[in-house]
Each structure stands twice: as structure tokens, then as C-alpha cells.
């Protein structure tokens, strides 16, 4: 395996390592992104074309509009990524692309473009799971982080506690039974009139409020101590708003969102730390868009400190959707000998850890 984890020089000698450059493309939702990543951990470029302003007009992501915008931007951001990295396409070792999960139309744009690019340049193609990318974002700025470790994955569509047993090897210990944490943030933000995207807006407003002003439920799932349920918290917030409106009582939005955020953070942190402790993990990472939440990061750092667990987190730029994280995950897939066939397709409901899908070949 060690020999596979380095590239041979042209004369076949292993005496000098050759850098592995991954050109990565991400288009699973509403960011068109491309990046060049060296050896899985050094980001040479990370270009993101966000559609947030466009979708804000509609209160959320409109899949058809997202796909069209990806088609307009994908070539431009890729060329910009190569230029900023100071490399040509010929210098690239392999092309990595997100092929699931996500919006099917958005994924198809990235997959089709990456396949065309790799085929034309005669480069290997690597398909990457979007959530695996989020987990791998932690490798970029933490050179000492290596598996095994526990990872709390929190995003708009996913909330999982994962044991990262090795590079590319995952065991899901806990998951949400209904709404993802990020989804609950967005729905509550809409209910209190903050709009889209809800997560960052709640994070900012909550700093002005009292997190203990309102007690919202911390749901537990019978027989599944590591699983989450956020629909009850969301419903409790909506009921509170309706109750206040019926009585013509003024709602302190800062207190409301601070109390809601506190309930969600407590549920996330308590379970993640419990999983780490019970599995003997001394390293805990957080990943996904909600990982940028300042209250969540602070609470995780505090609880990890109390339990002698080292806490890892990406910078906010690597928490939200980006291609650098796909480049990092793609590097470890490439080094493990995983290649995609030219029939690689978008898989919108792809599960973490699935390997034997059409278009993927374990060589």
C-alpha cells in the first residue's frame, strides 16, 4: 500500500516523490466550484461561483436555475482554477468530480464536464461522494489529522456521526431520523422572517439574544441514542411563534433564534462527544455547511477540551460547498486505486461509503 501512495518518476524510480495534482469540480447544489489540490492537503487554487444572491429571490434553491447557472460557469471557474494554480491541464494527475448526493441536474453538469475534460486530456477520472468531500476538508489545514477519528457531519441535507476508520472507509454511527440540522435552520429562519440562507443569518442574530430565554425540546430517539430528530424542535419554534401571534405578543427574534440554536447545538455536541468517548476516539472533527456555525464550533471545542479529545474543524471557506474538499477526497480515492469509468453518472441519493456503483472501478 505504501508504494501505491506515491507516484513513480518517469524512469520508474521511487527515490523521488512526484506531486499528485488533482483538478476537482463541484456542482452538487448552488455553487459552481473548481480547485487544484496538491497531494491531498495543499490547495493551489479554490474558485467558487456562488448562486446565493440569485436563489435568495426565491427563498431557496431552484434546481432548474441552479443547473443552468452551472452550465454557464463551470468552464470559466475551471480555467480560472488552473490559471490561479499556475498549472496547465497537462500537468494535472487526475480529474475528480462530485457525482452525488445532490440535485440531479446540478450534478449532471459537473459530471459531464469532468468526463469530457478527463477524456480529452487523457487523464484518470475519480468520482467523489459530496459528504466524503466535506469530511476531507479537515485534512486541508490539519496536517496531523489522520484516521481513525470521529466526524460530526452537519449540512443542509445530512446530519450524521461518522467513524472515519481509514481514508475512504466510513461507519455511520448516528443519523437524523427526519430533518437535517441545516434544513431546520433554514425553515426556522424563514419562519422568523430572516430569509435564505438561514444558517448564517441565525448565527449572526443569535449573538444578540439570550440562549436560555426559551426552552425548546431536545428530542431523543428511542433505542437509538446516537440518532437525531430535529422536526420536534422546528415544530416547537413554529408553535411558539403562532402562540405569540394569537396573543398579539411581541417576539424577540434574537432570543428565539438563540434558544433554537442552543437546542440544536446541544443535541449535536452531546451525541458526537458521546460517540467519540464510547469508541475510544481521541480526535473529533466537524464537517459540512453548518460546521461554520460559531456556537457549534465553540461548544464542540469546550466539550472536547473537557474530555481530553482533540477538536478539528475546517475554516469557514472549506465548510460550505467548495472544490478543494473534493480535491482532497479525490486524492485519497486516486491513491487507493479507485477510478471511474466513462459511464460515471450522477447519483442524487448516493449513500456515504457506497463504492460498487456504475462507473466506478476498484483497480
Write out key terms for the chains shown.
five-stranded mixed sheet; alpha/beta; 363 residues; Nucleotidyltransferase, domain 5; globular; disordered N terminus
Structural features, described:
α5 (181-191) packs parallel to α7 (231-246) and α5 (181-191) runs antiparallel to α8 (253-278). The protein is globular. A hairpin with a 4-residue loop joins β6 and β7 (159-166). It folds into 2 domains: 3-136 and 320-362, Nucleotidyltransferase, domain 5 (2-Layer Sandwich); 144-314, Nucleotidyltransferase, domain 5, CATH 3.30.420.40. It has 11 helices and 12 strands. The chain has 363 residues and is of the alpha/beta class.
Order of helices and strands: EEEHHEHEHEEEHHHHEHEHHEE
Q: What is the overall shape?
A: globular
The helix content is: 40-55%
**Class computed from helices, strands and strand pairing:** alpha/beta
Rg calculated over all Cα atoms? 21 Å
Give the CATH topology of the largest domain: Nucleotidyltransferase, domain 5
List unreliable stretches of 5+ residues: 1-15, 356-363
The CATH superfamily of the largest domain turns out to be ATPase, nucleotide binding domain
C-alpha termini separation? 13 Å
How much of the residues is beta strand, in percent?
Answer: 15-25%
Mean pLDDT: 92
Question: What is the fold's blueprint, element by element?
Answer:
Blueprint lengths: L20 E6 L4 E8 L3 E9 L1 H5 L6 H23 L8 E7 L3 H18 L3 E5 H12 L7 E6 L4 E8 L2 E7 L5 H11 L6 H9 L24 H16 L6 H26 L4 E5 L6 H13 L3 E3 L3 H4 L4 H12 L2 E3 L19 E3 L1
Parallel strand pairs: 1-4, 4-5, 6-9, 9-10
Antiparallel strand pairs: 1-2, 2-3, 6-7, 7-8, 11-12
Helix pairs in contact: 2-3, 4-11, 5-6, 5-7, 5-8, 6-8, 8-9
Amino acid at each position: 500500500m505504501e508504494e501505491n501512495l506515491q507516484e513513480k518518476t518517469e524512469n520508474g524510480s521511487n527515490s523521488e516523490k512526484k506531486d499528485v495534482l488533482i483538478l476537482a469540480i463541484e456542482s452538487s447544489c448552488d455553487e459552481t466550484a473548481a480547485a487544484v489540490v496538491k497531494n491531498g492537503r495543499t490547495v493551489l487554487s479554490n474558485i467558487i461561483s456562488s448562486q446565493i444572491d440569485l436563489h435568495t429571490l426565491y427563498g431557496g434553491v431552484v434546481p432548474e436555475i441552479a443547473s443552468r447557472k452551472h452550465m454557464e460557469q463551470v468552464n470559466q471557474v475551471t480555467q480560472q482554477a488552473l490559471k490561479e494554480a499556475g498549472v496547465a491541464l497537462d500537468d494535472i494527475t487526475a480529474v475528480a468530480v462530485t457525482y452525488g448526493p445532490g440535485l440531479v441536474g446540478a450534478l449532471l453538469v459537473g459530471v459531464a464536464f469532468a468526463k469530457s475534460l478527463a477524456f480529452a486530456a487523457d487523464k484518470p477520472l475519480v468520482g467523489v461522494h459530496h459528504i466524503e468531500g466535506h469530511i476531507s476538508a479537515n485534512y486541508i489545514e490539519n496536517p496531523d489529522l489522520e484516521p481513525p477519528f470521529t466526524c460530526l457531519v452537519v449540512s443542509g441535507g445530512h446530519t450524521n456521526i461518522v467513524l472515519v476508520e481509514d481514508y475512504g472507509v466510513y461507519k455511520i454511527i448516528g443519523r437524523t431520523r427526519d430533518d437535517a440540522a441545516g434544513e431546520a435552520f433554514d425553515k426556522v429562519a424563514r419562519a422568523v422572517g430572516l430569509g435564505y440562507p438561514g444558517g448564517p443569518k441565525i448565527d449572526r442574530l443569535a449573538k444578540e439574544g439570550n440562549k436560555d430565554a426559551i426552552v425548546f425540546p431536545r428530542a431523543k430517539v428511542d433505542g437509538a441514542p446516537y440518532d437525531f430528530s430535529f422536526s420536534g424542535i422546528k415544530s416547537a419554534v413554529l408553535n411558539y411563534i403562532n402562540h405569540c401571534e394569537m396573543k398579539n405578543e411581541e417576539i424577540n427574534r434574537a432570543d428565539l433564534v438563540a434558544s433554537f440554536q442552543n437546542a440544536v447545538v446541544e443535541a449535536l455536541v452531546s451525541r458526537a462527544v458521546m460517540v467519540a468517548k464510547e469508541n475510544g476516539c481521541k480526535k473529533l472533527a466537524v464537517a459540512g455547511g453548518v460546521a461554520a456555525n460559531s456556537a457549534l464550533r465553540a461548544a464542540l471545542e469546550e466539550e472536547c477540551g473537557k474530555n481530553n479529545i482533540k477538536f478539528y474543524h475546517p475554516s469557514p471557506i472549506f465548510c460550505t460547498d467548495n472544490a478543494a474538499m473534493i480535491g482532497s477526497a479525490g486524492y485519497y480515492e486516486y491513491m487507493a486505486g479507485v477510478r471511474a469509468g466513462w459511464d460515471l453518472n450522477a447519483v442524487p441519493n448516493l449513500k456515504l461509503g457506497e463504492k460498487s456503483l456504475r462507473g466506478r472501478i476498484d483497480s
